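Why show two proteins at once? Because comparison is the fastest way to build intuition. When a single record is shown, students tend to memorize it. When two are placed side by side, the eye starts asking what differs. So, the first record is below.
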Amino acid sequence: MSKANISTDLKRIDHKTMADVVEMRLREYLKKNSFRPGDPLPSEQQLAESLDVSRNVVREALSRLRMLGIVETKKKRGMLMTSPDILLPFERVLDPLIMDKETLQDIFELRLTLEIGLADLLYLRKTKEDVEELRKIAMDQKGVSGRQVAFRIKHEIAFHGKIYQMTGNNTMQRFQSMLLPVFGYVREMEKEYKPAKVSHLDLVNLLTDGTKEAFRQGMVEHLQNHFDVLQVKR
């Protein structure tokens, strides 16, 4: 038999399990019927009868949706649609010990790009009290040498963490907290410490008296050393 006949006669095997199919159908059902957080779902028995599958299959599919935070079970209320925690899966796997360097670089590049784009939210929501707290953090860092690695990283985290907090965006604040383990990778990339062209204190002064465009450019120059050491991807 020729190869052409084999390709024609043999169809690819669908590797989806019954639970995979049920999970997909449930997702389609929730979307089609515009379920919103707080809406009750049909019972396992009702779903099993409608899909013509066993309750065990439905239970497995629902457990996957629970793990993703799409549904939850409430006492005396049964299953409800809920608002998924979009960062939870990411939070569970963000461990430098189980990630290759390319993935760590991707994540760090995401952080750099995100911080350059924070200016609009900062200028929309900053308060005098927040700026003064940020200034105190920057002042505490003055005189820290490149050899004081742990101390420098601690203040780096404190300063940039405060900036994320000032945006008022909870998702970005959580994301920044999740990035803390990546600082070890950053330290490993830096063969030698070079002070930023624009310091933390310079950024505070821009935030106090400058425009958001000037602050954005200042952040670019503050992070430039990190961009300089990023590896070129091939």
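Second record. Ask yourself what differs from the first in the token line.
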Amino acid sequence: MKDNRGQWVLNNQHEDSQFELALSGVVDDAVVHCRLDRTFVDEETRWIIDYKTSRHDDDNKEEFLNAEMIRYKAQLEQYARLMSGMDARPIKLGLYYPAFGGWRSWEFSDA
């Protein structure tokens, strides 16, 4: 894989490296079951990364990625709420598009 971001995401040497981690818990008074595509700890930060296979028009890659971040933000933040009950470290969330090396990330804040 030539994509540096992809190599970093898939590196199994990260602390607490997990693929397809199943989590269940209560979020906003509802029982939630999910499966995290990828999670690990890097530099004292918990990462939760969701892989996506969506395609985009080459002319609007940045616009596409920004729209996808809005589209999936609630889903990933729900994952982070579950994880924060088990891990007190800061959490960052990421969307990764291996087909074209697309990436968006943000810090989770449950404030």
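One difference worth noting in the second protein: Residues 19 and 37 are 6 Å apart (CA to CA).
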